[in-house]
Amino acid sequence: MTLTTTLKMLEDAKNNGYAVAAFNCENMEMIQGVVDAGKELDSPVIIQTTPTTVRYGSIDLYPANVSAAAKDAPIPVALMLDHGNSHEVVSEAIKAGYSSIMIDGSTLPLEENIAFTKYAVSLCRKNRLPVEGELGRVGGKEDDTESEECGYTNPNEAVRFVEETGVSSLAIGVGTAHGVYTVQPVLKPELISEIRDRVMVPLVLHGASGLNHDVIRDCIKRGINKVNFATELRITYTQAIRKCLNSDKDIFDPKKYGMAGREAVKKLAMELITLCGCKGRAIDR
User: Given phi > 0 = left and psi -120 to 50 = alpha, else beta, which region is 279?
Assistant: First the structure.
């Protein structure tokens, strides 16, 4: 099976009141763990890589890994460029076989973000790829972008942004942050409800790692259709490998501790898939 885009899976999530879990994966074992979780729970999965991950492993390596993992998987698997920070990296991802694109101009003034995102949409339209845009800064550190402030999305600006850019989905700022929470975030979940009433495209929540699960459920109930998880997966993967190596000082075969990391990611992915309500939602590609 080939990779699918996020378009159909997110539209189904929007129409049926659930969210699709999106996982930032750094290597083969994490990809395998996520795809295995989706297969076991009959769920669609979105695998994401950021520009720094791409620089680490090359733009061609990740599509090859994800395509191989998805080849015999009876579920929709999408590969998305997360936080694309230039039109050049977007073009490279399209050529490499990414099936969906996220372009991040959220640090730019509104007019510049619209122009930046609109051009990315035009690049992807030629290849029939959906584009996720972002409006309202999500705090913390994500890839090369770092912000101490959590910006809240203005509903009026959200309407204009979607209309003028033509994005297929929209990541909004409601007070979440990337990375590990050191203080309790000040969330404004009511913004989700207001934007959901005025914007027709699926809405996306970034910075979900570490959030209380009841909070995530409430965000989904209010209209979030895609939830991103990154830091949580990295921590879980690393802790599992550390535990494995500490348990037996004679282990030297990467397959042994790689397997431990893969199984830990699978277990966590299954929990998060269930949390998002996409268990059993593996619709036709």
Answer: beta
How far is the C-alpha of 219 from the C-alpha of 191, rounded, in Å?
Answer: 10
Distance CA 230, CA 232 (A): 5
Beta pairing class for 169-172 and 131-135: parallel
Positions marked active-site: 82
Taking the domains of the chain in order of start, what are their residue ranges? 7-276
Cα 253 to Cα 7, 25, 182: the distances in Å are 40, 22, 36
**What whole-number distance in Å separates Cα of residue 260 and Cα of residue 245?**
10
What architecture does CATH give domain 7-276?
Answer: Alpha-Beta Barrel (3.20)
Two tokens, residue 173: 């700022």
pTM of this prediction?
0.91
For 61-87, the pLDDT digits (tens) are: 999 999 999 998 999 999 999 999 999
Using CA atoms, how far apart are residues 111 and 127, in angstroms rounded to an integer?
25
Q: What are phi and psi of 113, to 5 degrees?
A: -60, -45
DSSP 134-181: EES--BEEETTEEESS-PBPPHHHHHHHHHHH--SEEEE-BS-BSS--
Q: Rounded to a whole number, what is the distance in angstroms from the first to the last CA of the chain?
A: 9
45-54 per-position pLDDT tens digit: 999 999 999 9
